[in-house]
């Protein structure tokens, strides 16, 4: 089996005891959820949606994003696996028909844990308001809450460019196939501990200039976004969006935390890219 990421550990059978199921909520996903629940319960697995060892996401990639944010405070103790009830997903890579096989694997087989990088976002405020930090699995976008975003972009504390446009998108390698791809960003293999910065409709003319190309930053580089006039920003973390006022700076970098996926069989990243986008 090809090494998918830098960090892959083997977990012997029987180590998972507590599970939870995140569900999209449609009737098909609901039925699948009951089926998984019953089969695992029969085999003495305990449903525990507060402290699960394994979180099974049934739905789409969006369902896995929800599951990730629900358990973001205990990533070291939680492994994720995704079943898709729609089209093939990047995080949800088991089909509904394969669910019995997945359950048998959970019960009886050892598995590998693969770890993927996350995006760390920290927001500092003026007036000594307590800073906040967040994790994203796909990306974080920065927009103005009223139209044009005007902000300075710094890399490692040094001014890089003045940005004017709709917004900026900072994505993880596994998020590179999501919004980032729509912004003509590169698809990044998740073994590369990195984040990618892409522009959302920048203004470029004789007065305003940005680099225009996506930038890929390594683990030890941080990127800061600083307000120029307006200190109010809309930050979206994956599917969640919120306005932040009185912002002093927003810093982006590769997070120390990682998301852990339970891999019961190999499904290489480039094969997922091919199957999703080329067919
Ligand atoms: P959604 O509107 O259902 O998501 C849009 C699509 O992105 C869905 O088809 C979703 O798959 C897919 N997707 C999510 N993560 C992906 C990944 N890592 N690689 C490839 N495709 C991925 O909303 P959602 O399901 O809550 O997902 C939120 C994500 O939507 C955001 O994180 C952002 O990446 C993406 N988005 C994209 C655009 C754009 O491309 N213009 C704009 C806004 C948001 P499922 O159908 O399996 O859920
Ligand atoms: Mn979705």
TrEMBL record:
Coiled coil location: none
GO-annotated cellular components: cytoplasm
UniProt keyword annotation of Transferase present: yes
Organism, scientific name: Sporolactobacillus nakayamae
UniProt: NAD(+) binding residues: 61-62, 138-139, 164, 166, 201
Gene name for this UniProt entry: nadK
Keywords of the record: ATP-binding, Cytoplasm, Kinase, NAD, NADP, Nucleotide-binding, Transferase
Protein name: NAD kinase
Subcellular compartments: Cytoplasm
Function statement: Involved in the regulation of the intracellular balance of NAD and NADP, and is a key enzyme in the biosynthesis of NADP. Catalyzes specifically the phosphorylation on 2'-hydroxyl of the adenosine moiety of NAD to yield NADP.
UniProt similarity note: Belongs to the NAD kinase family.
Keyword Cytoplasm found: yes
Active-site residues per Swiss-Prot or TrEMBL entry: 61
InterPro entries assigned: ATP-NAD_kinase_N (IPR017438), ATP-NAD_kinase_PpnK-typ_C (IPR017437), NAD/diacylglycerol_kinase_sf (IPR016064), NADK (IPR002504)
EC number: 2.7.1.23
Catalyzed chemical reaction(s): NAD(+) + ATP = ADP + NADP(+) + H(+)
Main location: cytoplasm
Required co-factors: a divalent metal cation
GO terms for biological process, alphabetical: NAD+ metabolic process; NADP+ biosynthetic process
GO function terms (MF aspect): ATP binding; metal ion binding; NAD binding; NAD+ kinase activity
Pfam families from the UniProt entry: NAD_kinase, NAD_kinase_C
Residues spanning the membrane: none
Uppermost EC category: transferase
